[in-house]
């Protein structure tokens, strides 16, 4: 079998572990040939690829990033690819394409699959918001980085009797904020899933100070937004759904709290640190398993599917199922978090 | 409600996170009173306990160990407790006991429960070998520590063209060896679940050297043992099942490989480092969720059960179910690992 | 002897290690009594203090922050304290005051000392800019945090062919930027010590891309500023010395580079994460040694001095010497860094 | 100029950082050519080397081990090399040899230098026992790994009221034990520099238990040994100096303490984990500076010398000076450590 593999979308710890696993399983067990397309779908369309043997993937398991590079693709070019997908596969000589990516990548994968390209997808997002799988690799690493930051900020907040607002990744789903907030012992968590009222945070901080805990750390997803009209100081922009949105919610919220509380409140924006670097053991194992199962699925002709963690097992789910809706944080998970604020 | 809590058995990162979560949920949400027994069941029988309020659990989320202490209990004393379990609960004034522990602790919990003590258990083991739950807290931390060690050892092995044998915890189940071996990219993994033949490892090392990879790292669970008669150098003791066992299998195996290969092979025994220290974010979240659900179960009168992770949900499973059989590494998980050696 | 101790100024990993060391050495070896003032000099003036015995400092060695709290002091109140320093010491019953702090704290210490208060200082700053000592504790931890961030960002930058600008702490001296930039392998470092020209960075990035290294990471101290008139896009404010300064130089520089290069350039502002959390082993050792020598100096009546690292030895230097000039990054250290860009 | 470089002796985090720094400085600044000999002096004698350009050292800064490999050399072959050192240099076309290594490597470097080979040495040892330099790279990483292990073990020891004996590296000098013991807050430290009496440790543990601290951690250098006749249980072997030595002092001491105290005492042997893996920021900076200065020294014809850290500066010291005596832990450093037990 000749397998093509590519990585697309944002950086995510564990990508290299998938690539390595695919190559090992395919080459060693099945005697397959593997080629890697450069810079995502671009490399597929531009015929930029290189052969991947055991040596090519040596030493990459613990490394962040992706040895294949990644890039965004214009929609027009994808449509073009879909028009003659079977010919493209034939021309490249690949029996299956394994794209590793997030929602956009998997949607593209589905379109290619529907157009006749044999495809097995591997989901990837540090946001953990793909509904068909219990978890995605990269998420554990991102949560770990954010948690370590909160651990560090707590000592500073406490020593200086200060409020800290930590903005973590999560534009549409608040999983990173939820889990790093819980793990770091944040005293407030704001998610995109439900608008928050700064007044609630003010009350929490004042109650803490009243009982002698003269500091607080609040963990905010970058996509969180206040309930309309609740931010007294400063105004946000109105988005396409009519919601008031603040660009840089961490900074806006820290300002709001400082005004209302009359105490120092400092924002910390973690940014891209969350999506780079060596993956945790959890993510390396999950990524390795995904790679293994993607190769097996290819050999069993289970195309149009992607790998998914279900409990302790890896299953193959239809791509169609995977990308229909975003997995957001349900209310009961938020209830669990709130009780330990 | 008045809740008694205790921690028993070996150290496990995340114990304090459970205690903190139980106290927060019980006190803040339900207005309960919580007392903590010292040194496991001993404190229960000796009436050694202290009240646990929010201040008592402040700052412990990220700390390893257990603020309540832990100790082994003689069987005789447990039997005694079971004889008058309801009276004991009444005397202590507790409406429910939440024991956090491993197989032994949960078995004791079940006996107490059967004897009339209202009990809600929380499973704990770094070995991850409790069958009723997908994962236990502490395991992720142990795997993380072992993986970091393997990462470090690989550079040394490579620079010195050497074979390294890393012995990790896992007496009856090889989960730590499996996952840290996969995550660290070990070239061989030996589990208690199936006897290994040193000849296979010798072959693997020789093949690696032949293709220019002049080093190897082998990850061995402390409970792993060779197939009978396969260790040519040195003899093990025969255990109760008639198996040949080596005390300190890591050291024995390194010696065996050094003899057979004529190359340096060094053992590294990770030991207790794996079970102490600050828990990973994953373990803190799981432990916090377990604590929350234990309190809820108590308030819903769901006694005789323990918390369990099933997929992404926490469920309450009968204690009877939890302790019947050990969760060992199935063959398909081992297959996944082998393909990336 | 009765020793008073206080921590003042910004948070700095290792403060607790000094406190612990002072208490251990004083109590165990000399049979002294130690009291800790709360919230820096404020506690001294407000007579807010608590006794510190071995139990009070148990378990704090590895913890960030300061168990005594810290706060800024108004100048007026300090002047007032200096007027009757000997009386104040007598009233509090302290034979020596050990203030742990940065430039401001040590200047205050010197004034108190000149006014008749027996003082032994301990220098503290994550910025490492106190000239009388080779190194200060906290610096190593800050560099470690920043280096880990750069390690992570490099993989993301590489996978996405992107320029990353990391802003680290260092308002007046660029030590953190210098060492984390060297340790992380940054491709450009901007320090407060000498104005930079964005054109040089543009050239460096273009040369890298030209030889196939399609990413770059630039490490900028928060106090770095461009040579006048060199930032083509956007304008800074003119400071008291007539220099053009940009608030948020990391963000400003990323914007500038994006404009000039026509490539994505993203800022990451590490912020307070650098000054909190568990100190590195290096900082714990240095802080512990400083505490030990401060107590010995007190017992030898060597007042008006502070602890300083000179080579491998701890020496006592006059406070007057310590605070006269800032230790900035000399040109030869910058030369060393530049050769590995 | 044509520069030859090699790494010899045990693994040490920072070796790759030196190699990278030498190549960058030499190639970029001076336009030199650099070749790397494989497996230490063996590669020199066997003419096994490869050219090192910027690409060859890309991405190695943060990686442990050495890309050049390392190996022991038989004395005979070295003597042979010394006989015709100038011819060897001429034949290889190298204008200078930069060997990076410990005592043995530097002694060999000195012999080669005395025989007419232009040599500039770079000292390397995780043990920090080279007298001519304040510190060596690798040491900080080793201390960091050992400290993290002690941090972890303390929670386990405390939860189980147990004594832990941690054996760290250091055959002839106790620097790692000293600094990781101080940084980890060990309650006893045993060094090769002075024989210990187990009775002192027993007393310390009993005093701790008496005041309610029911655990202890003891940090032992692998080269530490008891004062003669003080180990009551078990007997050591007599070494060439007539001292009683125990193979595996950590294990022997734990056994001794368990017997005497009647409490569990467990050994943990950290082993090779201490010398592998990614170097700390401190070690990367020091290694990079050493590489830079080695190249400059070569260009200034300062042969027969090695790089050394003196305070904050890198100086060039005669190789003769460097290897005359071991830098051991002086009594005053031990005094500092003892006060915080």
From TrEMBL, chains A, B, C, D:
Question: Which residues are marked as site: Important for substrate specificity?
Answer: 104
The record's active-site residues are 127
Lineage: superkingdom: Bacteria
- What's the Enzyme Commission number for this chain? 2.7.1.11
A family per Pfam: PFK
- Which GO terms label this protein's molecular function in UniProt? 6-phosphofructokinase activity; AMP binding; ATP binding; diphosphate-fructose-6-phosphate 1-phosphotransferase activity; fructose-6-phosphate binding; identical protein binding; metal ion binding; monosaccharide binding
Localization in the cell: Cytoplasm
Q: Which UniProt keywords apply?
A: ATP-binding, Cytoplasm, Glycolysis, Kinase, Magnesium, Metal-binding, Nucleotide-binding, Transferase
Describe the protein's quaternary organization and the partners it interacts with.
Homodimer or homotetramer.
Q: What does this protein do?
A: Catalyzes the phosphorylation of D-fructose 6-phosphate to fructose 1,6-bisphosphate by ATP, the first committing step of glycolysis.
Q: What is this protein called?
A: ATP-dependent 6-phosphofructokinase
Q: What is the originating organism of this protein?
A: Streptomyces albidoflavus
């Amino acid at each position: 079998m000749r397998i093509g593999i590519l990585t697309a979308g944002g950086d995510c710890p564990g990508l290299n572990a998938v690539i390595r696993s695919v190559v090992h399983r395919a080459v060693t067990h099945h005697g397959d040939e593997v080629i890697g397309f450069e810079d995502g779908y671009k490399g597929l369309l531009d015929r930029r690829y290189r052969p991947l043997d055991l040596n090519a993937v040596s030493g990459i398991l613990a490394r962040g990033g992706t040895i294949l590079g990644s890039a965004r693709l214009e929609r027009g070019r994808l449509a073009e690819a879909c028009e003659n997908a079977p010919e493209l596969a034939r021309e490249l000589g690949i029996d299956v394409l394994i794209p590793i990516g997030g929602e956009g990548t998997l949607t593209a994968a589905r379109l290619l699959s529907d157009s006749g390209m044999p495809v097995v997808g591997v989901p990837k997002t540090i946001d953990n918001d793909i509904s068909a799988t219990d978890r995605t690799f990269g998420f554990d690493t991102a949560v770990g980085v954010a948690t370590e930051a909160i651990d560090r900020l707590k000592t500073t907040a406490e020593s200086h009797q200060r409020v800290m607002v930590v903005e973590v990744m999560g534009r549409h789903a608040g999983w990173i904020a939820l889990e790093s907030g819980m793990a770091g012992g944040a005293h407030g968590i704001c998610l995109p899933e439900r608008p928050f009222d700064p007044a609630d945070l003010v009350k929490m901080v004042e109650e803490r100070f009243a009982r002698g805990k003269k500091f607080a750390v609040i963990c905010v997803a970058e996509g969180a937004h206040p309930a309309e009209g609740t931010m007294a100081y400063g105004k946000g922009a109105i988005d396409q759904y009519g919601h008031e949105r603040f660009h840089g919610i961490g900074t806006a919220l820290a300002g709001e709290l400082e005004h209302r509380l009359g105490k120092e409140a400092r924002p910390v924006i973690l940014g891209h640190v969350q999506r780079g670097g060596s993956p945790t053991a959890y993510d390396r194992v999950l990524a390795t398993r995904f790679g293994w199962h993607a190769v097996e699925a290819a050999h069993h002709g289970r195309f149009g599917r992607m790998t998914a963690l279900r409990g302790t097992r890896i299953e193959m789910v239809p791509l169609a199922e995977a990308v229909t809706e975003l997995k957001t944080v349900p209310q009961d998970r938020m209830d669990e978090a709130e009780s330990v604020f």
